[in-house]
Design a protein that fits this description.
nucleotide-binding, binds adenosine-3',5'-cyclic-monophosphate
Length: 139
């Protein structure tokens, strides 16, 4: 089925001027960028977006990192977009990411791992709503 998923190009990637190379990986995989904006995350946004991780030992570090440089938030659309995006991203830990994936090629560490992608249809819907109004998504 045609799905939508939510993506973030993270600070380590925008800082190294990798936005276009990452977008090319999405598009080459057949994902369409139907919404996109470059923002600087506020503390409220970073803490709210990652609220599910608030009890984790790395939470403070994660929030600071996501606020440290601009990010690019996007909605990706396509056949099985959620799984396809996860495949293109590779494993969370770049040391475990498969050849050719974004994290294998670009990520620096488990925290500075270049991209975020939704993990399921419910989280995709929530995450898209967190950053985008309906009229900002143009399919
Ligand atoms: P993301 O998909 O954005 O969702 C939660 C993030 O927490 C994850 O990617 C990682 O970047 C980050 N993360 C997970 N484990 C660790 C860790 N051990 N140390 C720092 N950051 C982590």
């Amino acid at each position: 089925a045609i799905e939508r998923t939510f993506s973030i190009i993270k600070p380590d990637a925008t800082k190294r001027n990798l936005t276009g190379k990452i977008v090319a990986k999405f598009e080459d995989a057949g994902l369409r960028i139907v919404a996109s904006k470059r923002i600087r995350m506020s503390k409220e946004q970073a803490e709210g977006f990652y609220a599910v991780h608030s009890e984790r030992p790395f939470f403070g570090e994660l929030v600071e990192f996501m606020m440290s440089e601009p990010v690019v938030v996007q909605v990706l659309e396509g056949e099985n977009a959620i799984a396809k995006n996860r495949e293109v991203m590779g494993a969370t830990n770049p040391a475990e990411a498969a050849e050719g994936t974004i994290r294998k090629e670009f990520a620096l560490s488990i925290g500075e791992n270049s991209v975020h992608g939704s993990d399921a249809p419910e989280t995709a819907a929530e995450e898209i709503k967190f950053f985008f109004a309906d009229e900002e998504i143009v399919g």
